[in-house]
Design a protein that fits this description.
single chain, mainly beta, 8-stranded antiparallel beta barrel, 79% strand, elongated
């Protein structure tokens, strides 16, 4: 196996804000797997409170290598536990949802073992109970 990394990040989504953490490891020269998850939250959309805990299993492929700048394409699967609460009543609707994920990330090496990442993903939720969702964010990736 190849280089290993840990990343922590966050950003905005179609429903609110999120934070996440991932572990990745190269298994071919330009190909790596990435596993992890995060938490998404929004409390100010009218009278609805939304939260989601998600986990992802992804494969990334480097399509652009310019020395200190890289572009990777991502694909894989996601699963999430979504919770929606009407603020006026204590009733919460919960659902486990899953589906495929596609995305891209741009990497800039800040130092030898620290990478700044800008990423975006689109999740296609198969049950469509709360709809498909996008995520756009930034992260710091630390080479282990």
């Amino acid at each position: 196996m190849g280089a290993k990394s840990f990343e922590i990040g966050g950003g905005v989504s179609g429903y609110g804000v999120y934070g996440n953490a991932y572990f990745s490891e190269f298994f071919l020269d330009n190909t790596y797997y990435k596993i992890g998850g995060g938490y998404e939250y929004r409390a100010d959309k009218g009278n609805i409170k939304y939260s989601s805990s998600f986990a992802d299993a992804l494969v990334g492929y480097t399509v652009l290598d310019r020395g200190q700048v890289f572009m990777n394409l991502l694909g894989g699967a996601t699963g999430a536990m979504d919770n929606v609460t009407n603020i006026d009543t204590p009733k919460t609707i919960s659902a486990f949802v899953y589906g495929p994920v596609v995305g891209a990330e741009f990497e800039w090496f800040l130092m030898n073992n620290v990478v700044f990442v800008i990423n975006g993903t689109q999740r296609f939720i198969l049950q469509n109970s709360f709809g498909n969702r996008y995520y756009v964010g930034v992260a710091l990736r630390f080479k282990l």
